[in-house]
Amino acid sequence: MTAHRDPAELFVEHRADLVQYAARILGSRSSAEDVVQEAYLRFARQADGEAAPGEGARGDRILEPVRYLYRIVRNLAYDWGRRPSMPLVGDLDDGLLARTACPTPSPEEDLRWRQDLGRVERALDSLPDRTRQAFEMHRLGGLPLKEIAARLDISVTRTHQLIKTALTVCAEQLEDEAGEDGR
């Protein structure tokens, strides 16, 4: 690499900008984090001479490492956007997930989920009947807006507004009480 910089040091220096760059392409910070992590793995392999040279590299030497890193991120982000189910890290041991993933939630997670469910129930109980009904028919019953509008004898636009209101109230309830719990 030019200037003989450590790939990890270079990556850490530019990581935040790379995540922001990938998030603009993907529209999701979480996916961007995954893409940037995979980009680093590929970049580090190339810098160590393990991978075949690609664009931005000549032989085992990366000519413009920052530009090359951005190119890897961009290409991975576009690939990720086209195929969201594409696993990025292909060389993971399949048994690794089975050994580390817990099939049941911990007691703490279970308690937190129950508390959150109680908060949502309280938020829904505080809503006007028609708002709550529209929300329940759509989110719990899976009915399309048009059918809900016909059942409640309101417009589709009004149905959408009611559901949005219910979602906002639920989210605010979860935020407010989560803040009080110190989460």
Itemize the secondary structure elements and their pairings:
Elements: H1 7-26, H2 29-47, E1 57-58, E2 61-62, H3 65-82, H4 94-100, H5 107-125, H6 129-140, H7 145-152, H8 156-181
Antiparallel strand pairs: 1-2
Write the H/E string, N to C: HHEEHHHHHH
Q: What's the N-to-C terminus distance?
A: 44 Å
What is the percent of helical residues?
over 70%
Report the strand count.
2
Largest sheet: 2 strands, antiparallel
Backbone structural class? mainly alpha
Number of helices: 8
- Indicate the mean pLDDT: 80
Based on Cα principal axes, name the global outline.
Answer: elongated
Tag the structure with descriptive keywords.
183 residues; mainly alpha; 2 strands; 70% helix; 2% strand; elongated
Could you give a quick summary of the protein structure above?
By secondary structure, the chain is mainly alpha-helical. It is built from eight helices and two strands; from the N terminus they run ααββαααααα. Mean pLDDT is 80; it is low at 50-58.
Describe this structure in words.
The chain has 183 residues and is mainly α. It has helices at residues 7-26, 29-47, 65-82, 94-100, 107-125, 129-140, 145-152, 156-181, and strands spanning 57-58, 61-62. A two-stranded antiparallel ribbon has the order 1-2. Helix 1 (7-26) runs parallel beside helix 3, helix 5 crosses helix 8 and helix 6 (129-140) packs across helix 8. The model is unreliable at 50-58 (pLDDT under 50).
